Amino acid sequence: VSLVLSLGATKDMGKMLGGDEEKDPDAAKKEEERQEALRQEEEERKAKYAKMEAEREVMRQGIRDKYGIKKKEEKEAEAQAALEANAEGSLTRPKKAIPPGCGDEEEEEEESILDTVIKYLPGPLQDMFKK
């Protein structure tokens, strides 16, 4: 059987059986070049996507300017500045807003409804209600 096998075939058999592999003298250099190529591709990809995102942001800002829309961060910054301005000079914490349905709001709504109804009444009846 061994006569049939060529010298190259016995080397391969030895590797499959767990023998020593041939050491490639340039293996470390090739691996380093491969890693460098991967890093370079990753940098190019990041640059490409950063450029695309910058173009999108320019377009978004144009739309915001056209329609008067503010970025979320700008809205939050303005709200924080307004809150700080209200609290300036105060030693206590800022007061919380009155929850809806409390206070004089109900009366105001009734008045506005009454005013609306009065507007649609004929002239003599309007005069009666205004007095």
Automatic annotation (TrEMBL):
Residues 12-57 have a biased composition (Basic and acidic residues). One of its GO terms (molecular function) is syntaxin binding. One of its GO terms (biological process) is regulation of neurotransmitter secretion. InterPro entries: Synaphin (IPR008849). It is found in: Cytoplasm, Cytosol; Perikaryon; Presynapse. Residues 1-57, 83-110 are annotated as: Disordered. Pfam families: Synaphin (PF05835). Keywords: Coiled coil, Cytoplasm, Exocytosis, Neurotransmitter transport, Synapse, Transport. Its main location: cytoplasm. GO terms for cellular component: cytosol; perikaryon; SNARE complex; terminal bouton. It comes from the Eukaryota. Gene3D superfamilies: Single Helix bin. Coiled coil: none annotated. PANTHER family: COMPLEXIN, COMPLEXIN-1. Binds to the SNARE core complex containing SNAP25, VAMP2 and STX1A. Belongs to the complexin/synaphin family. This is Complexin-1. It comes from Cepphus grylle (Black guillemot).
